[in-house]
Design a protein that fits this description.
Distance between the termini: 12 Å
Number of strands: 12
Low-confidence stretches: 1-11
Number of helices: 11
Largest sheet: 8 strands, parallel, barrel
CATH superfamily of the largest domain: Phosphoenolpyruvate-binding domains
Strand order of the largest sheet: 3-4-5-6-7-8-9-10
Mean pLDDT: 93
Helix content: 40-55%
Shape: globular
Number of domains: 2
Radius of gyration: 20 Å
Order of helices and strands: EEEHEHEHEHEHEHHEHEHHEEH
Amino acid sequence: MIGDNVEGMTISFRPRRSALFLPASNPKALAKARSLPADVVILDLEDAVAPEAKAEARQAAIAAVAEGGFGRRELVVRTNGLDTPWGADDLSAMTAAGPDAVLVPKVNTPEEVRAYDAALAQAPAHTRLWIMIETCACLPLLHQIAACGADSRLAGFVLGTNDLAKEMRARLTPARTPFLPVMTMAVSAARAHGLIVLDGVCNDFRDLERFRAEAEQGLEFGFDGKSLIHPDQIEPCNAVFSPSAEEQAWAEAVVTAFAAPENGGKGAIRVEGRMVELLHLEQARQVLAMVRAISVG
């Protein structure tokens, strides 16, 4: 994590504004990923890889992790599920390889989280477990699933709206109306238990206006960032999930005001004609931690 000391308070933060999915079987894509401005690179062994190419893709992911060169980018590998012919071998390979995180699909219950955690028991301590939120069965159990983060490697949720749309027989329209309750549920469960939470992909990668609207919607709901399927989506995604100049200026003003001697011990003060409380100070520190982490990257 990147540490940011703001007025005596250290906030650990790592930006995850943009998380780009790439098929691990595509060597050109892997090479290009090392120079892209994405915060997270997700090497995919699941949906983006045909069954006959699974073993080859796994070896490519192992080689990519070993070779490194991704810089500040967080390197995640999405494996196949343990209920598939490739899942156990994928998990075993990633246990030895040790990426920053392993992302697993279609988790339905806390017991399945425990099974994946057990499969990664011998992985390096830094290798975290992320899970796709993409089944109808998991939705009533999101808080119980997220609670597994207290004593396991579980560290993140990634919303899988494509699979949810398929299971729900819902239409994945630009407004994403059928999925708004799911977005609220996923973010609230993640926040309650200190997990990362990323919004789902936008399939129409050529329509950057639609993409930006989805990203802004995800920001409004409280997601840390958004998963992507094309490099062209990175720049607008980073822009949306980065604090604006106005937000940074306001955060600096709030932190400075609370640090003034005359405001010592106060729980609420006036800043630029607005009443702010200690909860706003915490939010301001988070904004400045984000700005600091982005500038370091």
